[in-house]
């Protein structure tokens, strides 16, 4: 949560830097300077947008991991426990049948 907030702030910083360079680009008289500042502005705006997309993807991943931890793992543990209990009962039954067969034969 704290890291997401920091990432959002970083995205805002990129956008703000992009706006500043865009403003500088508008006031630059030389064509090369205008293009250079414009490119830097565009890059920083892109970084800001990319950060927003990254945050949304991170939130989706965190939600999926949370679901996995809270539901899938406990369900798997419960299923495994039931399986092991049933297997123990089955093997106990097989052992009883074997003992009965040995008593009948012997």
TrEMBL record:
Gene3D superfamilies: Arfaptin homology (AH) domain/BAR domain (1.20.1270.60). GO terms for cellular component: plasma membrane; trans-Golgi network membrane. Residues 15-106 form the AH domain. GO terms for biological process: intracellular protein transport; positive regulation of receptor internalization; receptor clustering; regulation of Arp2/3 complex-mediated actin nucleation. Signal peptide: none annotated. InterPro entries: AH/BAR_dom_sf, AH_dom, Arfaptin_fam. GO terms for molecular function: phospholipid binding; protein domain specific binding; protein kinase C binding. This is PRKCA-binding protein (Trinotate prediction). It comes from Henneguya salminicola (Myxosporean).
């Amino acid at each position: 949560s704290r890291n997401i907030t920091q990432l959002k702030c970083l995205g805002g910083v990129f956008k703000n830097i992009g706006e500043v360079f865009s403003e500088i680009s508008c006031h630059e008289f030389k064509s090369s300077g205008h293009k250079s500042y414009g490119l830097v502005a565009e890059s920083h705006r892109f970084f800001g947008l990319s950060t927003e997309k990254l945050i949304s993807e991170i939130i989706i991943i965190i939600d999926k991991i949370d679901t996995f931890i809270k539901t899938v793992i406990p369900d798997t543990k419960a299923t495994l426990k039931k399986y092991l209990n049933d297997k123990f009962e089955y093997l106990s039954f097989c052992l009883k049948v074997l003992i009965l067969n040995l008593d009948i034969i012997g």
